[in-house]
Amino acid sequence: MQTNHSRRVRQVLTAPIAVVGGGAVGVCIASELQLAGYPVVLLERGEIGSGCSSGNSGLISMTGLVPHAAPGVLTKLPRYLVDKNGPLTIRGTHFLQTLPWFRELLKASSAREYERIASVLAALLDRAHPQMMALIARCNCGELVRSTGTITLHETASTYHRSLAENELRRRHGREVIDLTGKELTDLEPAISPHIYRASLMPQNAFTTNPLRLVQSIADDFRAKGGVVMRTEVTRVEPSQQGMSLRLSDGKTLNAQTVVLSAGAWTKSLLAPLGIKLMLEPHRGYHVMAHNPGITLNHPLMWAERGFAIVPMEHGIRAAGKVEIADIDAPPDPRVPSRILEEMRSVFRSLDTSTTSHWMGSRPATPDSLPFIGPVPGQPDIIVATGHGHLGLSMSALTGRLVTEIIAGHTPSVDLAPLAVERFATRRIVSFKEIADV
User: Fold this and answer.
1) pTM for the structure as a whole
2) In this structure, what CATH number is given to the domain that contains residue 215?
């Protein structure tokens, strides 16, 4: 990276490729570009991995191919507006601002779209899992990852029977799902309360015991091999004679030939001045950590009807999840961690919650559960890589590979059309009958 001084106060820096965003996706993009021989500058306004990458559930999923826009979602929206204990809540003051996003969600919820999106997600995850494991091995941080599989809990007979269609969808796409009786579940996880009706073991999934340390270890490897990390906020992106110009919060300007925007939910505001309205909303998630739980947990637990995962971590047991749709700058709802803590206690026979901490962060979510990966229309020097929702960690290394293929001019290893930045501007109109069809 070269530095130019001029008579003006603003200092101008140059770099061939600038990656904006130091979460799991941005860090893995920088690592994959570096592996391909590209000089890269990674920009992050805070500590590397300090956003969603620090507080997520740490899952590296093969089975997360079920779209959140399922047939029948229209009938559930009113409940989401009033039920504060469900897996998804909507702050009423924010709902009107997100109507365009919800309109696209309803389009994606037709039976035909549901199947199409699941097929795209399955194809992505088929490639993402080995890509992520290879990157982890390359960066020598395999001790942070466990391939135990995950267990989905079904509290009642009705919730178990509702899960059968989703598990059949997973099986059709080559995922292994093993049904467990209540006794088989307690044999695997003796600490679980006996009131859980049934469970499903999904052995192909993995997880990290410390997602923050994993992302920071990958970033450390990037630095050790010559990569540059700048701790500064990008306030504006605009075309320039050198390619793209990034205005930085410290008063400097960075000129780059190519810019990769992987700033999570904040990517939307960086694109807005360029006339690009990204169909992206922050889905705020919460976690509660029990630091001295007094029990042993062998697998991550997915509690679908409550909307969160319970995961054994280096520093305790973490319950992470929920979806709260609210303004990106709105303060956390202090009631949510208390509710999660109550639900954690109900899962286990004996859980020590005398020492806990909690967190909130914003996931970047698209209406159709598919990320944005590709160039900005009319601005090929800007590549967008965001919108991964709950699958950011799972898809981060694959996203890095796809961005590298785009920059290199190679044919992408997966079809990028379903992930195009402009896809919502060109989608066909879906009939109300299709939306309402269950």
Assistant:
1) 0.93
2) 3.50.50.60
Phi (first) and psi of residue 310, to 5 degrees = -120, 120
- C-alpha 44/C-alpha 24 separation (Å) is 12
Q: Which residue has tokens 């740490």?
A: 58
3-state secondary structure of 345: helix
How many other C-beta atoms are found inside a 10 Å radius of the C-beta of residue 6? 8
DSSP-assigned states of every residue in 373-385? EEEETTEEEEEEE
Distance in angstroms (rounded) separating the CA atoms of residues 272 and 97: 16
DSSP string, 294-308: SS---S-EEETTTTE
The domain total for the chain is 1
Say if strands 243-248 and 234-240 run parallel, antiparallel, or are unpaired.
antiparallel
The residue range of the domain holding 69 is 2-436
CB of 158 within 8 A of CB of 308? no
> pLDDT means per 10 residues in the chain (438 residues)?
48 90 99 98 96 94 96 78 72 82 94 97 98 98 98 92 95 98 94 92 98 98 98 95 91 96 97 94 95 98 88 97 88 92 92 96 97 96 97 98 98 97 67 40
